[in-house]
Every structure is written in structure tokens, then in C-alpha cells.
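Archive entry: two folds, one per protein. Generate the first.
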Amino acid sequence: MVIEVLKSKIHRVRVTQAELNYVGSITIDEDLMDAANIIANEKVQIVNNNNGARFETYVIKGERGSGVVCLNGAAARLVQVGDIIIIISYALMDFEEAKNYEPTLVFPNESNKLID
């Protein structure tokens, strides 16, 4: 049996931009992507703590060290700059493997920077 489990999570990151007139996606600081083991074009779920919206999109690399978290395209209508969101990725794996899998969890500071 194969099940879908939490692979990575960037917890409580702040939206820095919302660009409606863009092709679509979420742009994430490459430092945060690396820390969370998330790659460009990976499907992610976004959970908006401010308004309860939950939606899916894909990741675009943002400038390393910039702290950028930008919702693009139609997703920009589901956030406001300053909103706190959770970015979640999932993986399919064998049931037995999943029992021992440890997801990557990232808890950035209020400026979307990694905490040492």
C-alpha cells in the first residue's frame, strides 16, 4: 500500500508580495526551499492562517536570502501581504516506510529568515 504523508513544511512564514498579473505559483526564498527540502516546480499546499484559505500551487525559486514569499496569479487573491501562511509538501511512500519517515520542518523568524 502507498500512502501520502507530510514531506516538508515551512511553518508560519509571512507573505511579502502578491502579484495577480503573473502566470501563477508561489515564489519562495531559495534558502527556505533548501532548508525545507522543496524543489522548483514541486506541488505545495498553502494554508493561510489569517483567512483559512487552503489551496495548491507550484514553487518557483526566489532570490536566495531575500525572505521573499510571493503568491502569484489567481492565488494572489487568497492572501494579503503580511498574512501568515504554512507551506506544505507531501510525498507518496510505502506504508511501512512511512511509519519511520521524519518530515523536514522549518520554522523561520518574522523576517522569513532561517533561525540558527
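Generate the second and append.
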Amino acid sequence: MSKKLEAFLSASEIKSFDLNHRKIIKHNIGQYDKKVIEGKEQFSNLELAKTRVAGIKHKSIENLEKYLVEFEANFIKRGGKVIWAQDAEEAIKESLQIMQKANAKIVVKTKSMVSEEIHLKEALEKNGIEGIETDLGEYIIQLRKEAPYHSVTPALHLSKEDVSKTFNEKKGTPLDLTAEQITDFVRQELRQKYSKAEVGVSGGNFLIADIGAIAVTENEGNGLMSMAFPKVHIAIVGIEKIIPSMADLDLFWPVLATYGTGQNVTVYNSIYTGPKQAEEADGPSEMYVILLDNGRSALLDQTEQRQALSCIGCGACSTVCPVYQTIGGHSYCTTYCGPIGSIITPHLKGMEEYKHLSFASTLCGKCTEVCPAKIDLHKLLLLNRRDSVQKGLSTKTENWIWHFWKRAMLKRTKMDQGGAKLKNFMLKQFFKKSWGERREIPQTAQKSFNQIWRERKGIK
């Protein structure tokens, strides 16, 4: 058993029986569900909107190189600089060089899953640079020294009492602070950081090819301030975020808002086209975009699974997933959790270590149903499973079990051979450990349906 699988099973075992966690998740997701129903009402034809999103993303992914080169050319025209990073190590190295050149002591950072992917915060800390999360949810989990629990709602697993307790322990605030008071406290803290920071770091919801820009959508204004205050801005964005035209935002922004938070549109929607121009009053003097591959090309090379790169990062598939709701985001032990994370992580980080994620699914299809980009998520999970078997990553024991199961299932006489006594013995012998300590192994009926049918019909 790999260490990653062992960690996954151990964390899942604990979280599955944590009733308080289940209560908090149920409440928070329930609030999300109510808002999404309201958000969907803005579309006269929701299915058509989803089909168009899927079509645009398909075109973008199938012509990825063309649109990335177009983006680069247009971004450079306005004085921006583009850096292509093959992996996380290269992205960190380039980011640190820019920061060291700017003599950065404080870096303000907007919410970004890509920065979590490359472990930017840890790299800043090792190099003596203070990196501050400016999104409220991210700020909370930074204080707790945790990873995001969800791609859109990083503190989804916390109650108001948990948050109040965190600020009491880390910042010395009273335990009875309301949500509004905590927000005001964080606002005052962050304003000091904005004014002192030498560098701002962001991700990007979309890369816009035709104008060479980055589109960022958020609800708190922290992204805008991280761009406006520091003299240097670094945007680290995955190459799959490209879309052909600025006109596409007319569709993508409301769809992302609806499925991400249940809003018609998020509060702040910004388009960054490069460093401050001569006639502009605000903005950084230097702006860099780091285009991150980090395994995405490996996924792009998979003809069937590459559609996973069409993900727009709404997090809806995780929110509806019964596995995610039971074991929570941290149990996956990866940056990207839920169904989409279970699909892309084996390609980004290696099938051998992460193949188990594609098996951690009920295949109920709810993720596919809600995906606004119409990604066939549960089919892609099956394709990952197939690939792991074809690469010889399944154990000999597992292979033998499936070999005998297949032989039995292909012939009725073999299926009925030995009766219930032998079947129950085999189940107890080979599946007791994997079935779990808290569950009793099911007992095979004394007679199969086929045998009962033949008896009733008098068939020998």
C-alpha cells in the first residue's frame, strides 16, 4: 500500500465518523444549495448556456498552443512580461527572483488554487518573506496552518464558533466576536499589509487571448487591492485557463458565479491587461504572468481525459459529491479534491501514487449533472481506473480476485457452484479487512434468484 493511499484511508476513516464535521458541512452546503437555485433563475436557457461554455472550452483546449501564444503577444504589447514554467519548482524559482529583485519583505496574495498547488506560501516563508492571504476564508485557514477545504470556499468545514476560537487563539480577540466584527478586524489588519507590500500575487480565473489579459472574479475587493497597491504584480495561472475572447466573459462570469457561490455575478470582476500605463493613476509598475504547466501537458496528451482541463473552477462537483461530503477536503491529501481533483491529480502528480482517488467514487453521476462545462466526470473516473489497470498498477491479489470473479460471472454453473456456504467463506476470507471494522460482511442468500426462479417454474 502506497503512503498516499494509507494517508487517504486513515484520514477518511476519522472524518467519516466525525458527526460534528458532518453537521457543519451539511449546514454550509445547504446554504450554498439555496443560493444556487436562485442564481440559476437568471438564465432563460441554462442548458444552452452550459453547452456554449463547454463548446468554448473545448475549442480553447484543442487549440491551446495557438491561444496561449496569442495571449503572450498581446500581453507583452502593453509592457507585461510572460514566463513559461514547466513545473512547480520553476514557477517558485521565477517568482522568488522577481520578489528578491523588488526587495520584497511583504507579499499580499489573493485566493489562488495554483499557488496552493506549487506551495508558494511555504517557499516564501523559507526565504524570509511574509506572505499574507487576503481572502477572508484563506486568511482564516492560514492562521490555522491548514490547506483549503474547498476550491471556492476554503473554510467550508468551519463553524462560526470555530472561526471565533481561531482568532481568539491566534490574535487574542474576544471569543464572542460576531462574524461582522471578525471581518472588520481582518479588514483593519489587511489594510496595513496592502500599504506596505512590495509585491502582490494572484491567480487568474481566465486568460483572455484576444486582448492579452487576466480576468479575476472575487467578492471582497482583495484581488483588486493586491493589484493596485504593490509596485510589482505576479499572476500565476494554469495554462488551461485560456479562453479566446473578452466577449466570452459575458457568459463565463455569470455561469461561474452561479455555480461557484449562487450569485448572479460576483461583486468584483477585474481585467488586468498589464502594468500601469502612462495615463493611468493606479496599478503596478511591473506585471508578470507565469504560465504554469506542471503536468497539464500530460493530461492534454490523453485524448479522452483532456476534457477535464475544461474545468472553470466553480467547485460544484465537490459540493454535490457524497464522498466529499463524507470525508471532507483534507482527506484527499491533494490540492484539488472532489471529483475533478480525483481525475486530474493522477495525471498531474502520477498515476502510481494517486490512482486510488479515481476509485474513491460512488459513480452516482451527480458531479457530471451539475458541471457547468459539461465535463463527463464520472466517465473520466472510469477511464482513469482503466488506465491504472492497463499500466499494471493493481496488485496481484486484486488481479486474481477479478480473474476468478470474471470466470464465475461469465458462466451460470460456475456462478452457482459451491453454494452460499462457499461464497460466504470466500467473502469472509478475502474481504473482511477491506470491508471495514465497523461493517458486517453481507451474507449471501442460501439460494440465488436463478435457482428460485427455476424451482418455481419447474425447470431443471
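Annotation attached to the second fold: Residues 397-457 form one domain. The mean pLDDT is 93.
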